[in-house]
Design brief:
The protein is globular, with a radius of gyration of 18 Å. Strands 1-2 form a two-stranded antiparallel sheet. Helices cover about 40% and strands about 10% of the residues. With about 160 residues, the protein is mostly helical.
């Protein structure tokens, strides 16, 4: 598999179809009300990152779906193929789509991060450790819900 560039992490050059497509994607997302926090080239060739601001669970789920559709459509407009696979090219750094998660209790005047405990291991609360355990326990099912069958097969090592 070939990529459209040989750029690296936060490369400002080359200005190529990938950079042009990323700028068009950001412009389209912002026109739809997304607050884009960062957009840059990733470590491996042909890989890019676009970060949008967090929101509540339902709004974020809707935005993830919209985001994926916009990225794929605009990539096609530029003659490129966008994938969210974690490791599309064997032997090359992977990226894929990743998410950051947080959980706040808002029953007080100031929202409280329930994952934080200044005295817990790695400053993680018991809730955070259980949350992580739940994600790990259900990782295969979560993966199945968020990737197409083709992406699952291409990303899986032989025998899984």
């Amino acid at each position: 598999m070939r990529t459209h560039d040989a750029g690296g992490y936060f490369d400002l050059l080359p200005v190529d179809r990938g950079e042009e497509a990323r700028r068009a994607i950001v412009n389209a997302l912002e026109a739809m009300g997304f607050e884009i926090e960062a957009a840059h080239h990733e470590v491996a060739p042909g890989q890019h990152e676009i970060d949008f601001k967090y929101a509540g669970a339902l709004e974020t789920a809707d935005r993830v779906t919209t985001f994926r559709l916009i990225v794929k459509k605009i990539a096609l407009d530029f003659g490129l193929h966008a994938t969210f696979m974690p490791k599309p090219i064997w032997g090359v750094n992977g990226s894929g789509m990743h998410t950051h998660q947080s959980l706040f209790r808002s029953d007080s005047a100031e929202p409280v991060n329930v994952f934080f405990d200044p005295h817990g291991p790695y400053q993680l609360s018991e809730v955070a450790r259980h949350y992580i355990g739940g994600i790990l326990r259900h990782a295969r099912g979560l993966r199945r819900d968020h990737e197409s069958a083709r992406e699952q097969l291409q990303a899986s090592p032989a025998g899984l």
